[in-house]
Design brief:
Elements lengths: L6 H7 L16 E5 L2 E4 L4 E4 L2 H4 L8 H13 L11 H13 L4 E7 L2 H22 L8 E5 L8 H5 L8 H4 L7 E3 L16 H10 L3 E6 L3 E2 L5 E2 L2 H13 L3 E5 L23 E4 L11 E6 H8 L16 H15 L2 H17 L8 E7 L2 E6 L5 H10 L2 E2 L6 E4 L7 H16 L17
Parallel strand pairs: 3-15, 5-6, 5-7, 7-10, 10-11
Antiparallel strand pairs: 1-2, 2-3, 4-12, 8-9, 11-12, 13-14, 14-16
Helix pairs in contact: 3-11, 4-11, 5-10, 12-14
């Protein structure tokens, strides 16, 4: 029998995401993973319904990704990117430019999704510095506009554009840059835009476009802010407003990119193009941290005209060869287009198997889009209690706030998916709609 983990040491010394060191939440020791299953140290196997926070779309221990990483590990695991380049980075950037919309021609490789957002915001600010310097004007456009209910990461610039009421602002106060917010999109996905859904956005852009450098938004799906799916018409209108009022559009596709919503990128639902695009999570198939921020020639030129003359960012592990090799292998799998049939099948099965959950007294709404399935509860759930119940049912589903959701790997089998949806409904059925649960959690990564 394998040795069990030292859970006492873990509890006393190791911080886990969004947890207290004095009131620690239970954790589950994972020994290994393969396909869509996590094997715990006690031998139990759990079907993974989260793709390890939405990243491991090809499943675990995929031979092609492992082979690419092992080969690269022996050849060149890391080298600084300042003054040096290498084949994995070049190959990855070629793939990204080929996969994304035509105007995006420049790629900045980042460490993580949060940093991709930091980079995007920096790009927008430096672009306007360059534009103003070129036109002999003083810098004015230094504010970012976004919608409520959004989540863009945990670093400070990213926090500044997260939801201002349930997000990070509430505890970091004046340390977080004050940005501008309008109500979240209200028109549901697949519906024609309500007449007033963009009214607030138009109003603030009209009144303050001299101050606003960019609008940032998660296209089609607001993730950790509530798993909300909104109309593609909203994006079409937003792109038009940004053009009308001379403001850049940043799309955060860290959660939605690479097929999750049923399109390769969520902006394809609206047939629009951004000025700046953030990618991450599934970029490497979830095997190692890497993200990317892409921009247009126009944005790159503006940055180059800024007083600094260069883009002011350069992470130590930028363009890490090992991560780039993993990403190249992951994108090769994506480019075979098997994900299209896989995601369509997942969507169809989840719609069929989750639809009757709306009849449960505790369930307020049922939503499915692509490989995302959501049960929205009337009340916030107790994550620790429900986590244990899901583990007892042989699945890994991690609820948060008032949501029980799954975003499984694309390679999941029909039987495995049925076990996940069945567990979701069983747990939801055991929750009384009138029960008082734990206090609402802060918007987090999930």
């Amino acid at each position: 029998m394998r040795n069990l983990l030292d859970f006492d040491f873990d509890s006393a010394h190791i911080w886990h995401p969004y947890t207290s060191m004095t009131r620690s939440l239970p954790v589950y020791g994972v020994h290994s993973a393969k396909g869509c299953e996590l094997e715990l140290v006690d031998g139990r196997k759990l079907i993974d319904g989260t793709s390890s926070w939405w990243a491991c779309v090809h499943g675990y221990a995929h031979p092609e990704i492992l082979t690419a990483m092992e080969k690269q590990l022996h050849q060149l695991s890391h080298v600084m990117f300042g003054g040096i380049t290498h084949e994995p980075a070049i190959e990855l950037c070629k793939k990204l430019i080929a996969m994304t919309c035509e105007p995006l021609t420049k790629v900045f490789l980042c460490d993580s999704g949060s940093i991709a957002v930091e980079v995007a915001i920096k790009m927008a600010l430096q672009y306007w510095q360059g534009q103003n310097a070129h036109e002999g004007l003083r810098p004015l456009k230094q504010r970012i506009l976004t919608v409520k209910k959004g989540y863009h990461g945990d670093t400070f610039a990213a926090m500044s554009v997260c939801d201002p009421e349930g997000g990070m602002h509430t505890m970091f106060g004046d340390a977080v840059t004050k940005q501008s917010f309008v109500p979240a999109p209200q028109t549901a996905f697949g519906e024609t835009l309500q007449a007033d859904d963009l009214t607030a956005m138009r109003s603030i852009l009209s009144a303050h476009n001299n101050d606003i450098a960019a609008v940032i938004i998660e296209p089609i799906m607001q993730g950790a802010g509530g798993m909300r799916f909104y109309s593609a018409d909203y994006l079409i209108g937003l792109r038009a407003l940004c053009d009308e009022f001379n403001v850049l559009l940043i799309l955060d596709e860290i959660a939605t990119g690479f097929g999750r919503t049923g399109k390769l990128f969520a902006y394809e639902h609206a047939n629009i193009t951004p000025d700046i695009l953030c990618l991450g999570k599934a970029l490497t198939g979830g095997y190692i941290s890497l993200a990317a921020t892409l921009c247009t020639d126009n944005v790159a030129q503006g940055i180059s005209q800024s007083p600094a003359g260069v883009f002011m960012h350069g992470p130590t592990f930028m363009g890490n060869p090992l991560a780039c090799a993993a990403a190249c292998a992951s994108l090769d799998l994506i480019n075979r287009n098997q994900w299209q049939a896989q995601v369509a099948a997942i969507e169809q099965q989840m719609r069929l198997e989750l639809k009757d959950a709306i009849d449960l007294p505790s369930v307020k709404d049922v939503r499915v889009l692509g490989a995302v399935g959501v049960l929205e509860m009337y009340e916030p759930v107790n994550t620790a209690e429900l986590q244990q119940q899901f583990v007892d049912l042989g699945v890994w589903v991690r609820p948060f706030a008032n949501l029980i959701y799954i975003m499984p790997p694309y390679v999941i089998s029909s039987a495995q998916l049925s076990q996940l949806t069945g567990a979701m409904k069983l747990i939801a059925a055991g929750i009384s709609a009138s029960s008082t649960h734990s206090a609402p959690q802060l918007i987090s990564h999930g």
